[in-house]
Design brief:
The chain is mostly helical and 111 residues long. It has 4 helices and no strands. The radius of gyration is 15 Å and the shape is elongated.
Length: 111
């Protein structure tokens, strides 16, 4: 039974990683458009959602580094929304975090 469970978990982790790449790509595109967006808060909420799902899934699959970095970026986006600040410097930093997350996934160095 354990082997069956391990195989299912490994299969789901592979799917999670693929979906995480898609989420990071979508978040990156949204972030690039935020400075000019007329509805920047809604776009920022979508970025938050993508990062939140990556952070939660990373935690579920025991990928602490991925989880921690996603949560840190997510927290920055949430603060910008709550403070009503379409802060380009903040979003540039989040974009750099997304780049680091993408690199982790590409190099398969998820921990």
């Amino acid at each position: 039974m354990t082997n069956s469970w391990d195989a299912k978990l490994a299969e789901r982790k592979v799917k999670f990683l693929a979906k995480s790449r898609e989420r990071l790509n979508a978040a990156s595109k949204l972030l690039s458009a935020l400075p000019e967006s007329s509805d920047w808060k809604e776009d920022a909420r979508l970025v938050f959602k993508h990062l939140h799902q990556i952070g939660g899934g990373g935690g579920l699959y025991g990928m602490k580094e991925l989880c921690d970095l996603a949560i840190e970026a997510e927290t920055m986006v949430q603060a910008a929304i709550q403070n009503d600040q379409n802060d380009e410097k903040c979003f540039e930093k989040v974009q750099s975090f997304i780049g680091r997350l993408e690199q982790m996934l590409v190099e398969d160095q998820v921990r």
